[in-house]
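Internal ticket #5521
Category: modeling
Description: The requester needs a full-assembly model to guide mutagenesis choices. All entity lines are attached below as received. Residue total reported by intake: 809.
Assigned to: D.W.
Attached entities:
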Amino acid sequence: MRNPAPVATGLYEKRKAVCPSKIDGKFRRLKWAIMALTLTVYYVTPWLRWNRGPYAPDQAVLIDLAHRRFYMFSIEIWPQEFYFVAGLLIMAGIGLFLVTSAVGRAWCGYACPQTVWTDLFQHVDRLIDGDRNAQLRLASGPWTAEKIAKRGLKWSIYLTISFWTGGAWIMYFADAPTLVREFWSGQAAPVAYATVAVLTGVTFWFGGFMREQVCIYMCPWPRIQTAMLDEKSLLVTYKDWRGEPRASVKAAKANPGAKFGDCIDCNQCVAVCPTGIDIRHGPQIGCITCALCIDACDRVMKQIGRPRGLIDYATLEDAAREQAGNPPTPHRKLIWHARTLVYFGIWATIGAALLFALGTRRHLDLAVQKDRNPPYMLLSDGAIRNAWTLKLKNMEGRPRQMHVALDGLPVAQMWTDTMSRGQFGRGFTVKVAADAIAPVRVYVAAPPGTKEGDIAFVMTAMDKEGGHDRVETRFDAPEDEHADEHGEGDER
Amino acid sequence: MADNKRVDEATGVETVGHEWDGIEELNNPLPRWWVLTFYATILFAIGYVVVYPAIPGLHKASDGMWKWSSRGALAADMAVAEKSRAPIIAALAKTPIEELPNNPDLMEKAVAGGKAAFRVNCVQCHGAGAAGSKGYPNLNDDDWLWGGDLKTIETTIQHGIRFAGDDQTRQSLMPSFGRDAILPPEQVSDVAMYVRSLSGDEKPGAATQRGAAIFAANCAVCHGPEGKGGRQVGAPNLADRIWLYGGKQADVVASVTNAHAGVMPAWAHRLDPVTIKMLAAYVHSLGGGEKFAPAPAVAEAPAAAAPGAAPAGAAAK
């Protein structure tokens, strides 16, 4: 039934090994710098210290899941303030949009962890197996002792890097020096070992073997980006109008009459590509815009004495202008167009809102929960009693005296479960531990016949920093005092 | 259908042979890692069937190699919880309830445990908020029939009230003055008016004066000369504003006519001592708990009103 097909369609297609060759150039150096920066940030951050006084950890960046606190330098976030983290994530998302609209897939090409670690592992390949050709030879060759030794060595280095990657991750979740000690003495939590194991495995597998397949098949971001790119987006562009038709220098010399392009078909752009594509086929999903092919082509153009930039960053719009013989748009205009301005506006607005919220947030909080069952009850002298559970939140890194006062219903008196009714009053003072919540059970009683009405609890910090919080609540009482007094209320 | 297969010119790849409004699908091979992952999921599924209960049978599924079951998982979780609670339970077991207030941390845990036990064992009568209802005391208030300190509450929970199966149960019984013709109906009415006047619900008058005399002769022995009750016999305080069986004239007449004798089970037969201790702590924490008082809080009852001695006790109020 099958028509004879020119290509064999097997059940699956084996991955074509990508063995990019070594290259140097301005984009390669930029990549080195960004790799150094991102890896330094990743490995060093948990070891930074930040003095928060005696009641809080001194790790600068700490996600303390056990105690439900998130520390980031001078900022401490409680679980109910998680919207700060959500805001940061939204900023990161819109930041990606902003970067994409301004400079194309720069995230993919330079800063994405998959790119950075793949790049690192490809350097390991070159270190152990040699450059591109040696790697290809070794990959297709038989399993000799040399190959086994090289593979063993290379994979051990992969594993070591992966282990440090996974190991650094857990440092963000506990005091780093303590955790290192515990980790090596076998006393760390099982989840720490499990996390390191999983992350080591994933890094080893994704960085060592999956590589560009993660970008092409698994990651949704390239698909989203292809929808976001437009004629104003920076792409790595092969200037086919300048390069075509291709001919080697020798062939061009042999045919002096014929018109040839600048591309000498040396294939260097393909050889250095970390995702193994040919940029001369035009924009494609496999291109992460790392610009290494620009470095490679520029070097070749320099060697053969032709102007650089046969492969270069260009927008589709500019490509058309350049093809028509016009000068390219200035960089400033390239980056600041309507779309980037809108993204930047949204991004900056969220950032400003977060900073405002951070600057104005209270460091104390009063939460009030009224007993609903029963809403009120009679005491033996006929007084009506309501009960509340107050939660006094002290978000400062030091213990504070908090005074809680009753506001409204002047006939009412209040006492707490650590006092007796005889010690009632209109307020009480509680010491709340540093960075903690103190639950206090509060009773409020009013004389017989009191009607239901609004009251409020007002919490005031008793130190010079001050600050207060006021929460409205309701004092419940029998609706018909007469009926209650005569026994209806006993049904409660 | 398959006859429509053709080779796409642009890519040189064969199509699958289907066509939808001119849209065709190329028969590109899958990436190898994808196929391998797919096979891995099949292997995983086979492993899952072997290891976990997965093959349905008539009455139950196969056991699986690991003998996993949701009940077993629950039991394991419970065992872990039990183990983590063990030190607290042990501490509670060896701490006499009188000592509990000196250890706020342990007290807090006892109250929490008591709250959970209360939800299971007590809410049926006393209500989820422990507010009780007619005939079932409200445990939030400051009115106690038998006493409201920790030790007394614990004893009440242990031995219950008028519970037939316990020798040390709280025992007292008020006579049914009306039904047993100890008092004629008009005297019952008079004494009810007097009782209501004690808490200010009735204005003093001729009837309450007559009632006072009847009260002194029949009721004061247990409820005290001022009607303030007696905790030794669980006689309710009649001079306060809390009525277990209703405070209207008709309610009080009913109580005097047909005495109430509410029953609470003796929980020592059903619950372990630590749970009872925790329950006592919880009930004590509800807002009406009393400190330990060496002396009885109310007027001393006559010797005749010793626990168990009928007909001294009074249950109705």
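Resolution: model delivered.
Comment from assignee: The first helix of chain A runs from residue 26 to 44.
Ticket closed.
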